[in-house]
Amino acid sequence: MQPVTITTSRITRIYVDEALFPFRGRMMAHMFSPHLEALHEMAERIGMRKWFQDPMTMNVRWPHYDVPSELRLEAIQYGAIAVNRYQTVVMADYIIGKPLRQSEFPKLIEAQEWLRQELDMMGLVHPDFADFKAGLE
Asked: Per-residue pLDDT tens for 74-83?
């Protein structure tokens, strides 16, 4: 399988979490990205016809797809990146514009460093990382 071809010139990333949860007899996960166009392209590629969770029209916190476990694996084959629950939380917070959570919990700190690296790779900046990035230049 070929990775999803994105129509923009920037690097985009699609993520699928490992937080499988039961829904109507199926195991589901979340698929998300800071780039909604790329997210919808991936959803179409793996045959998702529904389950887009849109905070503009639904009572959900962040935009994502609820993806059956078999399509989660297909998304990974097409280039989606499997992430843990802490990475999901920090990326979801970024997508909705929420500030970084202040924490001394090692797994959350690791996830925030992962977020900084991912955003840097995509040419995106989290306002809470602005001072950190300025110090490197």
From this structure: 999 999 999 9
